[in-house]
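look at this one:
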Amino acid sequence: MNGQTSTALVTGANSGIGYAICRELARRGFSLLMVSYEKESLDEAASGLESEFGIKTAVCCMDLAQRDSALSLFDYCKENNFVIDILVNNAGIFFFKDVINTSPELIEKIIYLHNYTPVMLTSLFARKMITDNRKGYIINLASVSSRMMMPGIALYSSTKSFIRCFSRAMRNEIFDKGVSITTISPGAVATNLYNLPERYLKLGKNLGIIMTPQRLASLAVKKMFRKKAEYIPGGFINRFFILIVMLMPERLVRWIKNKLPG
């Protein structure tokens, strides 16, 4: 793109929640810089949004689970004259596995992807927004599991807890400077992140336990523009589930884990 373009940057933009947020922003007329490491699906998603909504899209194929990826992405934006007014840190991975059975490489990957890169991107782009005296909006994706110390998801929930705490704290450092950080903490969402069979996804959606990514995206963007500090989609159901898990005795937690297959 030539010249300076006000743009929304979304990571993990090729599918799931990231793509749904891109679509919601495109519906509102925003230009997009879509980031993912899956080039084919990323190009296809960007092209489809351009055709459907008549907005400008650009893609950046990059593995955000690398130490230098945040700075590389920030430099890419500067070199290509992107003015980022909206940043959505959505890229993530999920797996159910005990820590001792997880490879060092996978542990490193989830920490970089969920923590190091979002922290660096939030810091770099927020500083740029403030230096340029521009209003800005940032969404950081956490999870209801950030409040759940459950076996099998120790790495996932703890990294989401970190990004939640970081986002809530940094928000109060920069809010009066014109940049708002909104933390989105969804429960179950009907994406391929959890590898649930289709019948369970359908049942969960019918019961209201699992939210569609389209619905989540609509609510998340709305809360972002309202400068809400944190939003837990699903309301009472997710808050009730959080409470139940937090009050569950450790002995019961271990009993449930031992009854699970595998």
